[in-house]
Amino acid sequence: ALARVHQMADDCPGPPVHCLRDVAVYRHDLELLRPGQWLNDTIIAYFFESFRKAAADQSPDKALTFLLLEPAVAFMAAMFREPEILKEALSVRTTKSEPSIMELMTGAQLLVLPINDKDDPNEHSGGSHWSLLCYRNGCFEHYDSHREQNAFRAKEVARCLGPLLGTSTTPKVVQMAAPQQSNGYDCGMYVLAIAKKLCSLLLEDELPAVGEVHISIRSITPLDISRLREQFYNALQAQ
């Protein structure tokens, strides 16, 4: 599996709270779902995988039409900046029976990946903000819950991913009218909330036209985010 940008390998005492495919959540990860905490990439990767699994259980065929990518993919795109290098990295198969990320990307109607503003690949943790980048119908859509703070990073990632998806190195990136956070720590929760909505909309054939924000996303409130945070915490705690 790709190394997770924020995973602190030396800080994993005891057994994991829960594992989903190759994502292991430890107690210190779980505690980040308490109020006032900034999410790390392990939590985001875990719930992305849970969204994928729920979609596959509900509609196996439609679940194959979208791809939720780990934070590490966007980080590599921002760091490599060369499409061919990224393509080579994403073309590696973890097992002979499973397709590579590159193969999955080229067959997906909707790509969803979390963006982080971390710059130093040598740091175990870092960055200060999460946002969400989507790709569909030849266009990138960027959902940022804090005044387009990650707009530049999203464009960097899009420039590297674009050629791999059949677009140019200067692809169109639409800054979406995303719901806005009311504090300095809920950005990761907005990423999860919006990604969850997008998955549901795709399964229900209700995705709006490119560049438009569905009412179910536009109407997400800070209270909704607080409730979702509690829901996610309780779900993991119960495992």
What's the order of the H and E elements?
Answer: EEHHHEHHHEEEHEHHH
Structural class per helix/strand content?
A: alpha/beta
**How many distinct beta strands?**
7
C-alpha-based Rg, rounded: 17 Å
Shape: globular
Question: Explain this structure to me?
Answer:
This protein is an alpha/beta fold and 239 residues long. It has one domain: Adenoviral Proteinase, Chain, CATH 3.40.395.10. Helices cover 41% and strands 13% of the residues. It has ten helices and seven strands. The strands form two sheets. It has a five-stranded mixed sheet, with helices on both faces. The protein has a two-stranded antiparallel sheet with strand order 1-2. Strand 6, helix 7 and strand 7 form a beta-alpha-beta unit. The two termini are 23 Å apart. The N terminus is likely disordered.
Short description:
This is Ubiquitin-like protease family profile domain-containing protein. Residues 23-198 form the Ubiquitin-like protease family profile domain. The chain is 41% helix and 13% strand.
